[in-house]
Amino acid sequence: MVDSVTPSVVPSARSRLCAWRKIIRSVNGVRRTVAMAPSGCAASSWAIVRPGCRQVVGGEMRRTVVVGAVVACLMVSGCGSRSIAGEGVAASEAPGSSTTEVAKSGAAWSVSGYAAGSSMVSVVGDVVLTVRPRAFVALDRGSGRELWRRDTPDGYPKYWISGGSVVFVDDPRAGSGQVLFEVIEIVGGATVWQGSADKVTVFDKAVYTAECEQESGRSERCSTMRRDIRDGKPSWAVAASGSVSRSIIGQHGRLAPAEQAHLAFSVVSEPFGIDWTLLETATGAILPVRAKNRAWYEVAVGKTLIVTANDDVRGLGACPVLIEAFGGDSGTKDYSITVNSGRREDDDCEHSLGGDGFVGSGSRVAVVGDDGRAQLLDLAAGTAVWTSEVEGSALACDDRSLLITEHADQGALTLVDLATGRRQWQVTDPGFVGYPNERTVFVVGDSVVVGGRIDSKHGTTPVTIVYDRATGAETATYDGSLEGADPDWVAIVRYVDGHEVLEFHT
What we know:
By secondary structure, the chain is an all-beta fold. Helices cover 0% and strands 50% of the residues. The chain is globular.
């Protein structure tokens, strides 16, 4: 247990161009493009020729040239809101020109056509990367002018950043086709290489592609290849039989997670099952270890396989999470322990340790002890690094601080030191409504940025609050959905005259 310290307690916030390209997937996998303009758009069109690029399809490289027609329209709307940040002005989205107006709210600029909760804003140098309905877009950081884009027919694409490149992933709806992906130079938008696969998993140095077959009455069989993120070249002579886990420890915005020497890897267990093992990323070799699939989180910590489950019943009142560790070479069980997930305000278990994996850093992850207090657990050893005096579960962290929430879905917020667990400050419940609504959190630089929804006379309203990391004092509040943050900027989406507008605040 850590020593008690006197925290600072801070009062609650409550108390104070529409260019489109439709991709048609034919039966034989050939992609065709058709220009489509939204109704009401009246603008000229022009041809865009994509330079020849490497394409990886079914393991083969070939050169392609894609020609498409693009239609652009100019949309500008007025803005008005009660936000502490004031009022904003929607901007043009015509690529190649800058008609974005400086927002009256103090935002550097704002653009229309974005969706709350789905914009996923990141910044790399002078380029803002973001997602809008059916498009992945790069904007100029200083003006909001569109620099380049990739269109998609299937809702909201995803992306991961690695150095000066970004991997754009168009994951179609279930059963509608393969995952299309493209590695793009962030400056300029040139295609480095592209491809398609049944499963795509992105790391900072590699893209793992899997081709899978489903046999009736049997488990899915996949063959996975590691491809160098720089050029798409296969790393191994032979594909590995199985697929890579997508669970991770810690997630920092849209940065691609670091590729480890070993990754958790699923393999078929005859005749109908799935086992977990470790994949050696340098060679594609599969280690001897095997662990039963428990359909939750699976990660590698060094040469140790970690498998978790939330079905370990210990009686009413518990929110148990079983964690088991297996030696990669020996396959022996190193330890088996039970911790807990968070509990919502209505007393239901959260059944999550943090999105697609764990809240944590390195081999250390945040869990809840049997007494309800937050713990930092070292997965390499299976022992607690510290037990905090604070009750609650983890929301987010970086390599310095961990943000704890009183209830898994709402309540007071407490920042603790990640190394020691000592409480730094606490704010009373900001008023965010609970499950099924979720909070978005970024612990960055000198700030802790939290977004969620609060009750209003019209239902619930999105609000973003910026806290000073050192003191917990509120430094800014915005009426809008939190879409991204870094030490020197915050991006939100809010409604302006019936339209959703992306605002970039610096």
